[in-house]
Every structure is written in C-alpha cells, then in structure tokens.
Design a protein that fits this description.
It contains five helices and ten strands. By secondary structure, it is of the alpha+beta class. It is elongated, with a radius of gyration of 17 Å.
C-alpha cells in the first residue's frame, strides 16, 4: 500500500454532494463537452475541483474484448491511490481474486468487476458489493480517479465550464 493512500476519514468524506460532482466530471470528461448551465450553491462553487489538466490522466477506460494486462490495471490503480482490500466495498478500493479485479470507482454507486482471460478483458460488469452478484453487463466502464493535486490545491470549479456557460449561484 502506498504511503499516501486515502484514510478511512478521506473515504467517508465522499459525501452525496461529492458523489454527484464526480458523476458530473465523469459525464463531461467522457463526452468531451462542458455543461452550458450550472445551478449550484455559492459554497459548492467555492470548494473547487480537480484541475482540468489532471482529469485526463485520472481515468481508465475498461472495454470488454480489449487487450489489457491485468498487472497494468493494478499498477494504475495503485498509482492513483486506490487501496487493495479483500473486497471492493467502498470508493477508492479494489480487490483481486484470480483473473478478476473488482474496482469501486468514486462517483459510482456500485463497483465494476473486470474479468480477464489472459491479456484480454473478457467482461466488465457492475456488481453488488454486499453479495458480489453481477447486476449489469457493460460494454465499457470508466474508472475515474481525479483527486486534488499533491499540494492539496484545487482549481476553481468554473475552470471546467465552457466560456459561455451560465452559472446561477445562491447563498
């Protein structure tokens, strides 16, 4: 485990608001578009966000049928400060059993299960962490791992918006 792995308190800090924010980052990062309108509290806008330049390297696309070495994915997860556990029960955790990796990506309600056959992703599924039962087969899944920089600095949330975006903030 890397020395800068997230603490239990950091994992719990992924509140419902942060969960929603990460889902928005995922949506707009994967579509390469920016929201034309944002309605948020002033406090939410002031909290900041990961720098836009850091978002691209903080995603990993998992596609069924794609060639991928299992070790490459594990190495990326460790580098992104995911914690290896016996089961992926909470965001920022992953588990490895044989040719299977379960990954609980921040912003997701359930972890992904990636099944390998050699160096090929045989399947990607959404699984229930309590029962380990597959819930949904996916063609593609994005693991999103953006955090603040090592210095702890965040960008202004508005840096993620298009120049002509309309922002409505309330106190």
């Amino acid at each position: 485990e890397p020395p800068d792995a997230p603490t239990a308190a950091e994992e719990e800090a992924l509140s419902a608001a942060n969960h929603f924010r990460v889902q928005l980052f995922q949506k707009y990062l994967s579509s390469n578009t920016r929201p034309p309108l944002v309605v948020a509290s002033a406090a939410a806008l002031m909290e900041g966000a990961p720098a836009p330049s850091s978002l691209g390297g903080s995603t990993f696309r998992l596609t069924a049928g794609a060639r991928l070495e299992m070790g490459e994915l594990i190495e990326w997860l460790v580098k992104q400060r995911f914690r290896r556990e016996h089961g992926a029960q909470f965001p920022w955790q992953f588990a490895v059993r044989g040719g299977i990796i379960d990954i609980f990506s921040p912003g997701e309600s359930f972890p992904f299960r990636v099944e390998f056959f050699g160096d090929v992703v045989e399947s990607v599924r959404r699984v229930n962490p309590a029962t380990a039962v597959s819930m949904e087969k996916l063609d593609t899944a994005m693991v999103f791992a953006a955090r603040s920089s090592a210095s702890g600095r965040l960008s202004a949330f508005t840096d993620l918006l298009s120049p002509d975006a309309i922002v409505i903030a309330w106190e």
